[in-house]
Amino acid sequence: MCAGQSDGRWRGAHGMSAIDDNRFGVGATPPVFADLPVLQPGADVPEGATYLPAGPDTVLWGRLPSQRDAPVLTIAAGDTVVVDTVSHEGILPDQGQDPVAFFAGHGVDRAAVLDDAVAIAARSPRDVVADGPHVVTGPIRVEGAAPGDLLRITVGRLQPRVPYGVISNRHGKGALPAVLPRSGATVSVFAPVEERAGRLVGTLPATEGGRRDIAFPLAPFLGTMGVAPASDERPHSVPPAEYGGNIDINLLVEGSVLYLPVQVEGALAYVGDPHFAQGDGEVALTALEASLRATLTFDVVPAADAAAEFGIVTGPLVRTADYLVPTGIDLDLDEAMRKCVAAALSLLQARWGMDEHLAYAYLSAATDFDISQVVDVVSGVHARIRASDFAEVPRDRD
């Protein structure tokens, strides 16, 4: 295998022939990696940027910040921050809690293993029984944010920090519990990122050890984006709630906006659980989990403006170039759906002045309700309301 080069780029194996190597198994195909820069802590951060690294002093592992947690960064509303995030895959105890050794077993040289992942695995406290798997960077205090307001997080750029990721189906916690994984089956699937036909793709074989002929496009996003709850207890990192957290909405790609109901003074925002790609539902338990560097802008929408724009917002709300995306979260998938419909009705009535029965009819005829995920204790549903459908509706209508 080729080593990481002095210019910070990772140049992985480029041969596709089978090799006899104990790391991959006799006759197995070695990985091929895209020629991407490895974004080690502090590397290639734009000059003058406000930068928040990920490390034992700036992350929580398995828990989300509470109102009692001191901010690791304080910013003004409207500020942009470059935030490093670290994937939990490769650092968990069932993978050896040694990312250098774990990824070496998949053909990754030490130069392409993130130093902050190594430090977090070695030094960050986590209760293996009581805590979740996710690493979150923060909290960030946003001056002027108060309960009743919305925190608006605009996703500017999402850069892969490494050219590989992992998809896992552990502990029988996917969509088919007690069925998968089967006894003896591999639960953590390594997926190299390649460049094919001018685009970055994740790659998988059809059979264990075979050629990676299956390629799917990358669409990076942060699975966890949230604010601290009005509680002294740090929430578990797995279930999302009204404050956001592990919402796993794959529409939160570059250019999207997330609105979160502020629970405490300063919001105390955090991000993590980085993904390279995820299908709605996330049925095996995880997406293509891999570390990202995120450029994010944090703004505050005052309570009165928020109500006029979106109605009563009691949970995460997403805005993309094409859609407004209200959400519903609940232990019961049917109830999550009902909550999402209610949130969508409130939005249509507040934003475009629709009569309730007409808004209900519109949602039934024109809006897709998608399952965000069904594997994180609570279930999530999100609606995709096309903004273009309302291009001719005056906003000042009663």
TrEMBL record:
Pfam families in UniProt: FmdA_AmdA
Annotated InterPro entries: FmdA_AmdA
Transmembrane segments annotated in the record for this chain: none
Chain coiled-coil ranges: none
Signal peptide region: none
UniProt xrefs under PANTHER family: FORMAMIDASE C869.04-RELATED
Protein name from the UniProt record: Acetamidase/formamidase family protein
Organism per entry: Microbacterium gilvum
Lineage of the organism: Bacteria, Bacillati, Actinomycetota, Actinomycetes, Micrococcales
